[in-house]
Amino acid sequence: MHEAIAKGGMGSVHLGRLRGAAGFGRIVAIKRMHPQLADDPRCVAMFLDEARLASRIQHPNVAPTLDVVAADGELLLVMEYVRGEALSGLLKAHREASEPPPIRVVAAVVAHALHGLHAAHESRDEAGAPLEIVHRDVSPHNVLVGADGLVRVADFGVAKAAVRLQSTSEGQMKGKVGYAAPEQINGRASRQSDVYSAGVVLWEALTGARLFQGDNEMQIMLAVLTRQIVPPSQVRPEIPAALEAVVMRALSEDLSQRFATAKEMATAMEQAVEMATTAEISAWVQRVGSERLAARDAMVAHIEATGPVSFRSAEDALAEVRASAPPASGPGAASLREASLLPAAAVVDVTPPRSGLRRGATSLAILFGAAAVVGAGAVLLFAGGERRGELPGDAAGSSARETVTTASTASATPPARALGEPTVATPQPGGPATSGSGAAPAAPAPGQLPDGASSQRADHQRQEAPPAPPPRRAAPSSRGAQPDFL
Hints:
CATH class of the largest domain: Mainly Alpha
Helix content: 40-55%
Largest sheet: 5 strands, antiparallel
Number of helices: 15
Distance between the termini: 77 Å
Shape: globular
CATH topology of the largest domain: Transferase(Phosphotransferase), domain 1
Strand content: 5-15%
Structural class: alpha+beta
Number of domains: 3
CATH architecture of the largest domain: Orthogonal Bundle
Number of strands: 10
């Protein structure tokens, strides 16, 4: 978990990096509850509700929640990182520049957000029962406009659902007052309340002004309940009449006159005005939010400056991951850093084969020389045992066969390298053996496995080696008895 990129009433959102096996890495957004709220069971339950409800909504216009992590005594929500800007920041930039936002673009942004809200309203649980989710906090702050041109509704922290774990007391106000419907202020929120909030967002996006104003929350609430809403064309005359009609219907205090669903409102908007394309929305975000995007990109580049993990060995890979882990300067950083370590099973060692006629000839010479040394040792061992009477007959032949079998098995098939052991020499097709450092290792002694393998492994190979045929005995000569090996 790294720097905070946004703060809200319940918590802050930080940049984070999700790491997995085989060098997998991904930048994510991590939502962390404010410390003063982390000890409140109601806030914790609401926090968990957000993750549970958002995970049930599958729609491109809803920011997905990827995971819930328990670290250092607090809960962290891991969400998709959207490279973009909140609609509130984009509208603020237009106000500061005294430039009205483009009508086609903001209309398309709100219409896409409405499709995401409709998906939330229609979501169901695992058994197929309607969840009856109501966002209750639809505002420009929770509409994320990506640099890719996609719009995503975020922050279901105060959402109301039929099976919500954290129940809301009747009459309790949730959400931002300036965007709440009159019935929501009275504690009777429904999906049409989200439609009303979307109408407020559309009014402000078209005009570049605030609809309900006041010096404090009570004054704003009073304005919502009593103020007559001014048509947006009185603030900005170029707004099309058909689009203004959609705005005023969405802001109707009479529920029977208001759009019944978010999808119905989105459809009416698409019929009233030509919507901007995804490419146009993308260009608008990158133009208006260029400074914020550049600052965010610099933060992401700093996090990713550690680079990809090099798969040389288990020790090297783990050392690089530990060295590039997030700083331990925040709650949850230690646990997330430990969870990010690459498992040893992900380490892969690949030694490229060497080629060349000269190297191939050298390799064959080494192999034939080793075989000659092993054969000579077997002859001497057999002859000495025969002369001393220590290894008569078949016993001597069995010992020689074991020696030859062990040596040939060791030279033909090197044992599997255990994870974490140094890279050892392996004969390559058409070339000599190479190691991880490029130096050729010493040739194993006869009867000894390379890489310091134990005698138990050698016994296992001797048991698996095919039995050698019995030695052929030479016919007796008139010159006297001759050793068997002749």
